[in-house]
Design a protein that fits this description.
Helix content is 69%, strand content 0%. It is mainly alpha-helical and 188 residues long. The longest helix has 24 residues. The radius of gyration is 18 Å and the shape is globular. It starts with 7 loop residues before the first helix and ends with a helix.
């Protein structure tokens, strides 16, 4: 019988909590079970596998990113919307680096409908932003991938201490956004 108060969402929340507390430690069912105060087999009443747990964690991360992008991009037009979305992604990644990384693998065939939906929402929001750069419909996916790659690469280097030079990292991020925005206009 499932432990009172323990649900799939509660198990996922415990996993997110563990990631936030110790980003280096691997996410395992044993760690989550210990945090929940149950034996590992008890978790299987709520999540079918470690992959299902990881999927749930990714949903949390991707949803947070989508929510942040929607709030930021919705308050501007053109470059302001683009920069707002990029800054929102960066803020979320800097605030929750382990969750950000756990949400990055592209959903595959075994991804839950919930994860596919959250990822699709994020792509759709970014597509709306790149359209404002004049990107034609047939190049939207290219543009979203370019934006995602640029922001993700910068964020991963930023969160891992990859920018060791004394120059202002925030200023470099602004230059990245300007260059990517200008490049988007050249997609034809």
């Amino acid at each position: 019988m499932p432990r009172v108060g323990l649900t799939r969402d509660a198990v996922v929340a415990l996993a997110v909590e563990l990631l936030e507390e110790d980003p280096v430690a691997p996410l395992t069912l044993a760690r989550v079970a210990a945090r929940a105060g149950v034996a590992v087999p008890s978790l299987y009443k709520h999540v079918s596998s470690l992959d299902a747990l990881r999927d749930g964690v990714a949903v949390v991360g991707v949803t947070r990113i989508a929510d942040a992008v929607e709030a930021a991009a919705g308050s501007g037009d053109g470059f302001a919307a683009f920069a707002g979305a990029a800054h929102a992604i960066r803020r979320e990644a800097l605030a929750h680096p382990a969750l950000y990384l756990a949400s990055q693998p592209a959903p595959g065939r075994d991804a839950s409908p919930e994860l596919l939906g959250a990822a699709g929402r994020t792509v759709s929001l970014l597509a709306g932003v790149v359209r404002q750069a004049g990107v034609p419909a047939e190049r939207e996916i290219d543009a979203v991938r370019i934006v995602r790659a640029a922001i993700h690469g910068f964020v991963v280097l930023d969160t891992s201490g990859g920018f060791g030079l004394p120059d202002d990292v925030d200023a470099s991020f602004e230059r990245l956004l300007e260059v990517v925005w200008a490049g988007l206009a050249s997609l034809t």
